[in-house]
C-alpha cells in the first residue's frame, strides 16, 4: 500500500478514534511479523500493560525467529552448492590434478612403442 494511502487511512482512523495500531491496517500489509506486533500493541493498549515490556519481548521473539530462519538457510546451503560444484568445479580440478599424469603416461606409451619396433 503506498505511503500516501497509509497516511490518509491513519488520519481518517485517528479522527474516528480508532487508534494508531488499527490504522496501520495489519491485515492488509501481508507481513506476519508486523501483524503480530500490531496485535500486541492493541492488546497491551486494551489491558493497560507496559508498552516497553511488550515491545521488548516481541523484539526478543523476532530475534529468535530471524536466527532460526538463518540457521535453516545455512542447513539448506550445502545441497544448493552440490550441483554447481559437481558440474563446474570438480571437472576442472580433475583436469588440473590428473592432466599432467595422463600426458606423462601418453609419452611413456609412445617411448615403449618406438623401442618395441
Explain what the structure shows.
It contains five helices and no strands. It has 117 residues and is an all-alpha fold. 4% of the residues are buried. The mean pLDDT is 81.
Please provide a brief summary of the model.
The chain has 5 helices and no strands. It is mainly alpha-helical.
Instruction: Assign a percent range to the helix content.
Output: over 70%
- Strand-residue proportion: under 5%
Gyration radius over CA = 32 Å
Which H/E pattern describes the elements? Answer: HHHHH
- Structural class label: mainly alpha
Number of separate helices: 5
Mean pLDDT across the residues is 81
Task: Tally the beta strands.
Answer: 0
- Amino-to-carboxy terminus distance: 86 Å
Sheet with the most strands, sense and barrel status: none
Shape: rod-shaped
Could you list the spans in which at least 5 consecutive residues all have pLDDT below 50? none
Amino acid at each position: 500500500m503506498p505511503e500516501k494511502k497509509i497516511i490518509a487511512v491513519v488520519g481518517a482512523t485517528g479522527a474516528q478514534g480508532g487508534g494508531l495500531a488499527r490504522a496501520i491496517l495489519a491485515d492488509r500489509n501481508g507481513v506476519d511479523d508486523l501483524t503480530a506486533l500490531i496485535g500486541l500493541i492493541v492488546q497491551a493498549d486494551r489491558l493497560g500493560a507496559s508498552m516497553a515490556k511488550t515491545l521488548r519481548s516481541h523484539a526478543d521473539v523476532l530475534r529468535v525467529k530471524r536466527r532460526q530462519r538463518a540457521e535453516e538457510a545455512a542447513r539448506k546451503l550445502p545441497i544448493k552448492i552440490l550441483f554447481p560444484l559437481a558440474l563446474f568445479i570438480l571437472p576442472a580440478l580433475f583436469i588440473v590434478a590428473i592432466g599432467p599424469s595422463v600426458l606423462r603416461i601418453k609419452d611413456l606409451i609412445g617411448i615403449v612403442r618406438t623401442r618395441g619396433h
